């Protein structure tokens, strides 16, 4: 290639990943980035400090108007965007805050995806159009107080009573729970594990909010209490039987995390880079010292490798060739590296790194939750270990 045609080095995109994106991809990214800059970034430090997400229903409607809710689903008012475009949206939302990306992920990749993939035609028509606009917020009830990594041990139980179902049990750490209009709840039955579409105004359903969190503070997190909740026969998801249903949903949601974690990492890296250019010690900017440059170089390498990995998985998802083990690969690597980037960024900012005037500590604490939800490090290591060796070590 002639030297004159070589594009200049771009510190914001050192590998030229933007060249892999279509004009439509870039438009989605820029739209979501602009919305987050206007509606989230000016306020999120205060939300985080107070442990609240005010106006969540209004935010949901705005996200729905952008097509960000269930955006990779087709039909029923959903945007039908590509997996890559959905990933880019997750990256931009989490660059603002993990809590905002979680709102979107749980709505689209868990609650809406479960209904779209496993629901009846009546369930899809009744719920999905209103969820796509943000008129109805959804949540996803799988994790229980005593059963996280081993959902097969769940105690929530659904029994038949004539033509009805009666649900009893508790779910824990449920994003969107107390603001949801519909919950997708997984329960044991005499026929195995089944999924149920539960209107949250059903008698016996309650969702007390969980407080005293030091992570995902700008997010609604709740317990779900099901006290003999009576549902009609058609509340069951007809196409989901066994653990395959909820695990399929989790794979879809984990894919968004692969991208989202890089958003938190990018925000922290950019804060550290700008600080290194302007903060002076010993008579010059600290970015001019070798040790600081080594930190910035290592952070940039892991950040953009992670974005490349996310894009690769998105291309595979769009092609219909993405495997759950590959999603585990991405979730394990990108969240772990994102936390490392945040911690290194904090060292560059010094004492300022713990201040909410900068996003670094907020992202770092949020990512501690992202590291463990939808599959802990250990679970994804075992998924990959089994895929590599052919030997199942989950119960060994």
Automatic annotation (TrEMBL):
User: Known Gene3D superfamilies for this protein?
Assistant: Acyl-CoA dehydrogenase/oxidase, N-terminal domain, Butyryl-CoA Dehydrogenase, subunit A, domain 2, Butyryl-CoA Dehydrogenase, subunit A, domain 3
The record's annotation in InterPro entries points to: Acyl-CoA_Oxase/DH_mid-dom (IPR006091), Acyl-CoA_Oxase/DH_mid-dom_sf (IPR046373), AcylCo_DH-like_C (IPR036250), AcylCo_DH/oxidase_C (IPR009075), AcylCoA_DH/ox_N (IPR013786), AcylCoA_DH/ox_N_sf (IPR037069), AcylCoA_DH/oxidase_NM_dom_sf (IPR009100), Glutaryl-CoA_DH_mitochondrial (IPR052033)
Q: Where is the Acyl-CoA oxidase/dehydrogenase middle domain?
A: 139-229
Asked whether the UniProt record includes Membrane among its keywords, one would answer: no
Pinpoint the Acyl-CoA dehydrogenase/oxidase N-terminal domain residues.
23-135
User: Keywords of this protein's UniProt record, alphabetized?
Assistant: FAD, Flavoprotein, Oxidoreductase, Transit peptide
Which cofactor does this sequence's record say it needs?
FAD
Name of the molecule in the record: Acyl-CoA dehydrogenase family protein
Q: Organism source for this protein?
A: Streptomyces synnematoformans
Acyl-CoA dehydrogenase/oxidase C-terminal domain spans which residues? 246-388
Family classification: Belongs to the acyl-CoA dehydrogenase family.
Domain of life per record:
Bacteria
User: Transcription regulation among the record's keywords?
Assistant: no
